[in-house]
Amino acid sequence: MMQGLLSLIQWLSPAFPTGGFAYSHGLETAISDGLVPDAAALRQWLTDVLEFGAGRQDAILLVQALRNDDHAALDCLARALQPSAERLTETLDQGSAFARTVGEMTGRALPARCLPIAVGEAAAALGLPVAQVVALYLHAFASNLTSVAMRFMPLGQEAGQGVLASLHPVIDTMATEAVTLTLDDLGSSAIGADLSAMAHETMDVRIFRT
Question: Containing domain of residue 192, as a range?
Fold first, then answer.
């Protein structure tokens, strides 16, 4: 099991070629509009996205992908749930790159999927506790957005890492809860993050792809 855990950590690390560093999940817009001016606001923004937005949604989809074999149907659902064109591009591009790289490493035929489905389909073979997989996935998601903030706003390394560390209890609670949820529990109410992602599509100058 330790080798499986190390594999998952590698797959979800910033060094893994999914291109996650290029996507801000709408956070670039929020920072540009002054909605996220400091570390406290960043922590609240990320907490909301995790608890009420894509974090919760991805966690539920990931659990189902780890437990069920109908990944094609789950992938169709994941695509339909994306609130904007850029968010669909974000999850598909990263999921496709993830599946392609893991497939090349393991010799498995892993088709292009949305990111949580791709991770679930690949990680199911590792035999890890479901909550552990979800926690590491959410941590990678939060870590990437924290990195976005540290590159785009006046936020030092120590402050950024402090924000990420403060999210550990949130991630732990969410991972524990996600294993008890079903597709009937899917839903998102992080309206501000969704609107920021939509607005990002029309920004004149931008650093990130979403």
Answer: 22-200
